[in-house]
Amino acid sequence: MADPDTLQRRGLMFILSSPSGAGKTTIARRLLAEQGAALRLSVSVTTRPMRPGEIDGRDYFFVDRAEFDRMVEADEFMEWAEVFGNCYGTPKAHIRDELKRGEDFLFDIDWQGTQQLYQRAQGDVVRVFLLPPSIEALEARLRGRGTDSDAVIEARMARARAEISHWDAYDYVVINDDVEACFGRVKMILEAERMRRLRQTGLIDFVRELTR
Ligand code: 5GP
User: Fold this and answer.
1) Which residue is closest in CA terms to ligand 1's atom 19?
2) The domain spanning residue 118 has which CATH number?
3) Which domain holds residue 136?
4) Mean pLDDT over residues 16-33, rounded?
5) What is the pLDDT at residue 1?
6) 4 falls in which pLDDT band (50, 70, 90)?
7) Ligand 1 neighbour 112 (Cβ under 6 A)
């Protein structure tokens, strides 16, 4: 009997974007913890300074501008963008080969990166955008971090509004009014997308066997 989890399948690129403060990091971490080896984080390269609690190689690969520029020149990124005066990029690494083997990847990137990945790998990309339930809730979450000055919060709010305006460039939009509910919805999207016929490359043989 065929187990749907063992049929040959092409991996997907699961992109999670949101304005800063809409809870994307929490959802991403939970998804990774729950999925284990079934979903791997694409760790980005950045020139931004490390924040307290962050680990090089887990949260980001932290590099200086010269190294980032070298990587751009050497065509080592699938996409890259300048955000807030810092550079962020998705290293190509082995993503293409691993997609072919059925590995799924999670991308925590902004709308600019999403657009570039979509242009390069349309059929493999699933774009999910998280929205805050209200602008007040967003500001409260940004202030709740307690790490940034008023000027920084204001700049982040302006940027959040700009990011929200890109909501219509995504396949799915989930309002994060409750972390549990939001997590459940994001998980449903992932599960459903894994079953897309075109991704299930093992189906042809399976159905041939069924109808023999
Ligand atoms: P933060 O500095 O708060 O970690 O991230 C700032 C923004 O950069 C977030 O919106 C995050 O999704 C985005 N970002 C992180 N990595 C990448 C990347 O590799 N490419 C792009 N385009 N955006 C990224």
Assistant:
1) 89
2) 3.40.50.300
3) 4-42+102-210
4) 93
5) 57
6) low
7) yes
pLDDT at 6: 73
Burial of 15 (0-12, 13-18, 19+ CB in 10 A): buried
Decide which of 2 and 138 is more confident: 138
CB of 110 closer than 6 angstroms to any ligand 1 atom:
yes
Atom of ligand 1 nearest to the CA of 48: 2
The residue whose CA is least distant from atom 3 of ligand 1 is 20
Residue 159 lies in a domain: yes
- Please give the pLDDT value at position 152: 83
**Rg of the chain, C-alpha, whole Å:** 18
Structural domain count of the chain: 1
Query: Is there a domain that residue 169 lies in?
Result: yes
Give me ligand 1 centre to Cα 109, in Å: 5
From the alpha carbon of 77, which atom of ligand 1 is closest?
19
179 located within any domain: yes
- Per-residue model confidence as pLDDT tens digits over 52-93: 999 999 999 999 999 999 999 999 999 999 988 899 999 998
Q: Is the CB of 21 under 6 A from ligand 1?
A: no
Tell which atom from ligand 1 comes closest to the C-alpha of 111: 22
* DSSP codes of every residue in 11-56: --EEEEE--TTSSHHHHHHHHHHHHGGGEEE-PEEE-SPPPTT--B
- Residues 180-194 pLDDT 10s: 999 999 999 999 999
Identify the residue whose C-alpha is closest to ligand 1 atom 15. Answer: 109
> What is the Cα–Cα distance from 109 to 185, expressed in whole angstroms?
19
